[in-house]
Structure formats: structure tokens, C-alpha cells
Design goal:
Layout lengths: L6 E4 L3 E4 L13 E2 L13 E5 L6 H15 L7 E5 L6 H10 L6 E6 H10 L9 E16 L7 H10 L6 E3 L5 H12 L10 E3 L3 H9 L5 E5 H10 L2 E6 L24 E8 L3 E2 H16 L1 H9 L11 H18 L5
Parallel strand pairs: 3-13, 4-5, 4-6, 8-9, 8-10
Antiparallel strand pairs: 1-2, 6-12, 7-10, 7-11, 7-12
Length: 339
């Protein structure tokens, strides 16, 4: 996998996607001040918002950041995680932007999902308003079924969709997010009319989606590989495909979508960010802290176990977010997911 490509989509046409966005006005400045003054950051407790319910990708990433910061003694201050679910991260992001301007002690994990959700919801709060600190990781999606499902391959799923576009209920994250998008791409690959497709069931967190899949309330589930890895390993879910270009080292027996005739590649990413207008010196301190998190054994061990791709950077993120938003907007519009 070329980890520098964070979202590649191809059903009939390949689309290289990127995400983030601006408001009707110009995006807020990344940090206040003209230079990075010397900062003693942090001098008090830090809170990291996971803008989703527990058990999902945002929650997992936020708690991994917390663990690295505290157990590796990167900071000596207390670090907490708060969950604010809703609309693929848009609810929590809006709360942070509107209530915590200039506060470098209130951080958030956002990602490709948040961008898709802000586009489909036509939200007035956007990822581009945040101060980006570091792009932390990327990961493949996985498509699963309950363990006793009659669907043994992606071909079986596509064949069922060809017979009835609403014959399969999909479980995944928030409407407009990457799970929803991948499900729509499968419908399109089967020749179905995405605008007539009504069988996607969004969940606020990976735990809720997993329960629905295992319990048979839905026929197919989609999420980041790391979120469903435990259930796949335990046998309570059956993995049909991963959305990466090549099979994963951690799960080489799970075939790719492309190897099964569906020309689709999708890779997700997540980013650590702060509210608008934080002091420039504190932003530089946060970037240095993020690099220590990335270099920690805690982060490396989890990343390897869950097959996260290393796309870490603290540079060029304003442009990255803007480019991602343009591409994701075009993709979701083409799929009929933007009303």
C-alpha cells in the first residue's frame, strides 16, 4: 500500500480523494501570532475529544494518544478522553470550535469520516476551521458478515444487490462517512441505483455496529479493520474483504475487493487537532508532542498489531484538508449521497 495515498476510490472511475473543508468565509488561522514564541506547554490537564461513542475508531485513537502520553511519560499532566457522539464527529467538532476557541488544552481526533459527514450534512462547522496538529495514521476498511451468514464472498454480496438493491442491510458509521461511502460504492459496482438505495444503517460507534452485526440485525458490516479485528479473530464475524490495495500482513487470508472483481480501494485517516487560534508556540509544542507519540512503543505496537499505515506528518495539513474536502465532495456528489 502506498501510504501517501489516503483515499483512492475506483468503481468505474478511479478517484484520488482527500478531505477537509472551509466555511463560507475563509478558514480560521491555524494559530494566533506571527511567530512561535517559546512555550512551556503543557502546564495543566489536557482533554482529548473522541467525537463518537465508545468502541469506534475515534475513541480508539484518542485513548491510544492518551495512553502514549501518560504511560510513556511524554507529559506529566493528567490526560482525559471525552466522548461526544453525533453526525460522524460533526457534533463534537462544532462544540469544540464554538466553545473552546484559543484553548490548546482541548484537543480532538477527526478524520476522513468527519469530512464526509460535514459534506453530507451541509454543516456550518468544518474540519478546516480546526488547527491541525498531526495526521496520525491511515487504515483499511473491512467488510464483514455474521459468522453464519450465507454470503461467503464479495461476489455473493454483489449478486444479492443485483437482485434487490435494498435486499441487504449494511451497518457502519455515520451517514456520509467512509463506511457509508464504501457501501454505496459496492451498490454502484453491482450496477444498482445508489439514489434508490435505502438500506444503510448508521451507528454512532463501532461497538453498537458490532452488536448489530453479530446479532444478525444487519447482513453486512463495514468499519476500519482495527475496530472489527477482535471479532474477526474470535470468529464472531466473518471477513469477506479489505479495501486496501494488497492483503494485510496481520490478516493475509482476507482478500482485497479488487482481487474479487470489485475495483474499489478506500483508505481512511485520522488527525489530531486543536481549536482555532491557539498560540503559535503551543502549536509547535503540540507538534513536538505528537511526534513523540508517533515514535513511542505504545503507538508502534498498536499500529503494527492493527495494520495501521504510517502516514504521520505535522506539515502541509491545511492544504491536505482543503484538497480532501474538494475530492470527497465530488465523490459523494457522484454517488448521490449529497442531497
Amino acid at each position: 500500500m502506498n501510504a501517501s495515498r489516503f483515499l483512492a476510490l475506483s468503481a468505474s472511475v478511479a478517484i484520488v480523494a482527500a478531505c477537509g473543508g472551509g466555511t463560507s468565509a475563509s478558514p480560521a488561522p491555524a494559530a494566533s501570532g506571527t511567530g512561535a514564541a517559546v512555550s512551556s506547554y503543557p502546564t495543566k490537564a489536557i482533554d482529548i475529544m473522541a467525537p463518537a461513542a465508545t468502541g469506534g475508531g475515534f475513541d480508539t485513537t484518542a485513548r491510544l494518544v492518551q495512553k502514549a502520553l501518560t504511560e510513556e511519560k511524554i507529559v506529566s499532566q493528567n490526560v482525559t478522553v471525552s466522548n461526544v457522539p453525533g453526525s460522524g464527529g460533526v457534533v463534537g467538532m462544532g462544540q469544540l470550535i464554538k466553545q473552546n476557541d484559543k484553548d490548546p488544552y482541548k484537543l480532538i481526533v477527526v478524520g476522513r469520516v468527519t469530512v464526509g459527514s460535514q459534506v453530507t450534512a451541509k454543516s456550518d462547522v468544518k474540519v478546516a476551521q480546526l488547527t491541525p496538529i498531526a495526521r496520525l495514521m491511515a487504515e483499511t476498511e473491512v467488510i464483514v458478515t455474521p459468522k453464519d451468514s450465507p454470503y461467503k464472498s464479495i461476489k455473493d454480496v454483489l449478486d444479492a444487490l443485483k437482485k434487490d438493491v435494498n435486499g441487504i442491510k449494511f451497518a457502519g458509521g455515520s451517514a456520509g462517512g467512509i463506511d457509508h461511502e464504501l457501501a454505496a460504492l459496492l451498490v454502484k459496482a453491482a450496477g444498482g441505483d445508489v439514489k434508490a438505495w435505502k438500506s444503510y444503517v448508521p451507528f454512532a460507534g463501532g461497538g453498537e455496529a458490532a452488536a448489530a452485526i453479530i446479532g444478525g440485525q444487519v447482513q453486512v458490516g463495514i468499519s476500519g479493520f482495527g475496530e472489527f479485528k477482535g471479532q474477526i479473530d474470535s470468529g464472531t464475524m466473518k471477513a469477506l474483504a479489505v479495501s486496501s490495495e494488497a492483503p494485510l500482513k496481520a490478516a493475509p487470508n482476507i482478500p482485497t475487493l479488487r482481487s474479487q472483481g470489485a475495483d474499489i480501494v478506500v483508505v481512511n485517516w485520522r488527525m489530531l487537532a486543536a481549536p482555532p487560534n491557539i498560540p503559535a508556540g503551543d502549536l509547535e509544542a503540540l507538534k513536538a508532542i505528537a511526534k513523540k507519540i508517533h515514535d513511542s512503543k505504545t503507538w508502534a505496537d498498536f499500529s503494527e498489531k492493527n495494520n495501521w499505515f504510517d502516514n504521520f506528518t505535522t506539515e502541509g495539513l491545511v492544504t491536505f484538508v482543503a484538497t480532501e474536502t474538494q475530492s470527497v465532495t465530488a465523490t459523494l456528489t457522484d454517488l448521490g449521497l449529497v442531497k
